[in-house]
Amino acid sequence: xxxxxxxxxxxxQALDSSxxxxxxxxxxxQLMLSPSSNQTTRCGQELLALxxxxxxxxxxxxxxxxxxxxxxxxxxxxxxxxxxxxxxxQAVNQLVLRxxxxxxxxxxxxxxxxxxxxxxxxVNATTRFKLRFLHRPLTLMHIGLCVPQSCERYELxxxxxxxxxxxxxxxxxxxLQPQLVYTKQPQFVGRFLESRAFRLLITLFSLxxxxxxxxxxxxxxxxxxxxxxxxxxxxxxxxxxxxxxxxINGLRVVGAISLLILHVTWYSLSVNxxxxxxxxxxxxxxxxxxxxxxxxxxxxISGFLTVSNFxxxxxxxxxxxxxxxxxxxxxxxxxxxxxxxxxxxxxxVLMLLVTVAISYYREVSLLHVHVPLDDYCAQDWWQNVLxxxxxxxxxxxxxxxxxxxxxxxxxxxxxxxLLHLYVHRPKLVRRLVVGILxxxxxxxxxxxxxxxxxxxFELLSxxxxxxxxxxxxxxxxxxAVGAVYAxxxxxxxxxxxxxxxxxxxxxxxxxxxAAAVLWVIWQMQLEANDQNKQxxxxxxxxxxxxxxxxTLHLILANFSTExxxxxxxxxxxLLQANCFQFLGKLTFTFYLIHPLLIxxxxxxxxxxxxxxxxxxxxxxxxxxxxxxxxxxxxxxxLEIPFNRLTHLLMSSLATQQATAxxxxxx
Length: 666
Prior knowledge:
It is a single chain. The protein contains 28 helices and 4 strands. It is mainly alpha-helical and 666 residues long. It has 3 domains: 20-187, no CATH class; 292-576, no CATH class; 578-653, no CATH class. Helix 12 crosses helix 26 (578-584) and helix 18 runs antiparallel to helix 19 (426-450). The longest helix is centred in the C-terminal third of the chain and has 53 residues, at 613-665.
């Protein structure tokens, strides 16, 4: 105890020195005391006055320092946001919170003799001790400053660089090398209102609104184009699910919510680089590694529907079979055009929304925008329009979550080519599909074995994103499996056996396969195997196949439950619920819009939220509700009208083609 009492003065002096030098605003004002500083400018003189008032403990100066961020708490583990308080900075010049300060008149009466503004300084503080996320750019320190309004941006940045060059004591201990990147006054300026993206977005929304109003005012049937925007009929289409496969709607909802759970944490890294967030994502990947693979559900469903819809259209098959293969080119191009028009309108709307939203938050958010999606969309919009964005660098992709739409279009091009060839050469196409599956398996294994990966999230995600995750040929596996099941379903499965039953015939073989799957899953959980590439390759392939097979067996259960297990029957009944049928029609818009909502939510908060499980669950539920609400509006007023316009265009082309063929026959 005596030793502790003797050390108290030393500790108090050290703590006082640490807190005094950790304030960037105090370092800025102390800089003005040096003879070498420029004290002749108005900014310099007001900083000197602020320092003098701070030394005299005047209330307005105390509020200015209190409003500015200070300290370096947990900076080594990623916390780098010392934002202070913008409201307290306003209180330096304004009478805020009068009700709560009525008993402390000195806080109200003491106003600064000159104007103050709230600024944020973004500092790059590198140190070998600081945790670094290898798949993300370096974290910038966010330091709030309440400084005189006379300090222009250029002068303030020059003074801050001089201040940071004087290394405080704690900088030496942590080996920090602070360098100012830039400063910002976070307030609405409205520069983005002059951008081309904002004008296009307003023009598009105004046109849709005008067409919607005209369609509901004029009598129905007066114009086929206006009828596409008729809200009551579009709502009826949105509510009617009688012509759709009920299980598929349910699966889409489950897949969309699973991806949202992943994206809630993933896109939070855009603003939150703390160790807590990294721990949450790592835990999600290691213990729930199937969540990132839920996108395979959409590819499987797409492959199943594409093939089953084509093969189930008997009149079309007969017509194509009667024509030579070379003359089917027009039908093939029409099918590609129809699919392209199905995907593209909403993606254009999304690109405009992303550009405008991120431009807005660049102005008003206190947080640094690490991924400038507005710049990427302005530069590389043509990649998204051509649906080839997954073939370029993933680090500079406009709305990078739309990579799956590019894969979807590329799969459709290949699938329709094989289907038109199947009409004339069915055996050849079957062999080609088997060859594609085998080549995909070999390619995936070889790709994983050649990559430098291990079961650590920050390393695995970096390598996967660059070479694997967005790779369309790797993703072709589950799409092709869905196509195989669709072919077996349309042509009738022999003795009720699925393709899986034909590959794994007999209970013994299935039991051995299930045991192998469980063994691989168990081994992947062991830390000793985090660099076992063969095990990682087997685990990735098996996980994707399992998701795809479960999806397909649930779809087949929609038609017959005779040979289905109890679990499949129970899952089928759950997915056929009425709520899933309505939400299933919103999943396309929901998938496109929910990452943008997550980023807007993150950039809209001044202080970052902790990444504990309870708050993470609440936010996920809130995103789901808000995402589906926004998706309902966009689907009703944009997606369905655009789809109806697409069908109208395609039917007009079909009518013109039929008229031309009749005239040719005459």
